[in-house]
């Protein structure tokens, strides 16, 4: 079994509900279990500012899928929830990204591990810190050290009642 961190994000059609639906779908995957999930965080858009704020979280999975098999399963979950990509860094119903897959480093035309933006995105690093405070990201360093050098923060806490 591999330990895999998945980033979740949504900013359309009740984003908290979208994340909870995706987490339920991840729980139902064969050969996979959701081990831990971070709190949900609000974040202002990294891309175009003319879109709603996002809700983001990170979960830790144990899975027997290979990276590409898991990617295919994540794409199915996104499609089942109705994801349509309208524009780069734009609004989306659900976004599921493989952030880390054990200690693996991988670069292909369809998947990069660790995720390309992992070192500069507070909406990924803060939830990672919450569930894996001692995590080391291959070729990047510790989550704590990456957070300490962030230049910009887009993140804000959501109330417990809204999760």
Please, could you describe this protein's structure?
With 163 residues, this protein is of the alpha+beta class. The chain has one domain (2-162): 7,8-Dihydro-6-hydroxymethylpterin-pyrophosphokinase HPPK (Alpha-Beta Plaits, 2-Layer Sandwich), CATH 3.30.70.560. Strands 1, 2, 3, 4, 5 and 10 form a six-stranded antiparallel β-sheet that branches. Helices cover 26% and strands 28% of the residues. The mean pLDDT is 93. It contains four helices and ten strands, in the order E-H-E-E-E-H-E-E-E-H-E-E-H-E. The protein has helices spanning 15-27, 67-80, 122-131, 143-148, and strands spanning 2-10, 32-37, 41-43, 54-63, 95-101, 106-107, 112-113, 136-137, 141-142, 155-157. A hairpin with a 3-residue loop joins strand 8 (136-137) and strand 9. The two termini are 29 Å apart.
Shape: globular
Low-confidence stretches: none
Distance between the termini: 29 Å
Known CATH architecture: 2-Layer Sandwich
The number of strands is: 10
Biggest pleated sheet: 6 strands, antiparallel
Briefly note the CATH topology name. Alpha-Beta Plaits
Residue-averaged pLDDT: 93
Structurally, the number of domains stands at: 1
Strand content range? 25-35%
Q: Give the structural class.
A: alpha+beta
* Order of secondary-structure elements: EHEEEHEEEHEEHE
- The share of residues in helices is 25-40%
Radius of gyration: 15 Å
Number of helices: 4
> Which CATH first-tier class would you pick?
Alpha Beta
CATH superfamily: 7,8-Dihydro-6-hydroxymethylpterin-pyrophosphokinase HPPK
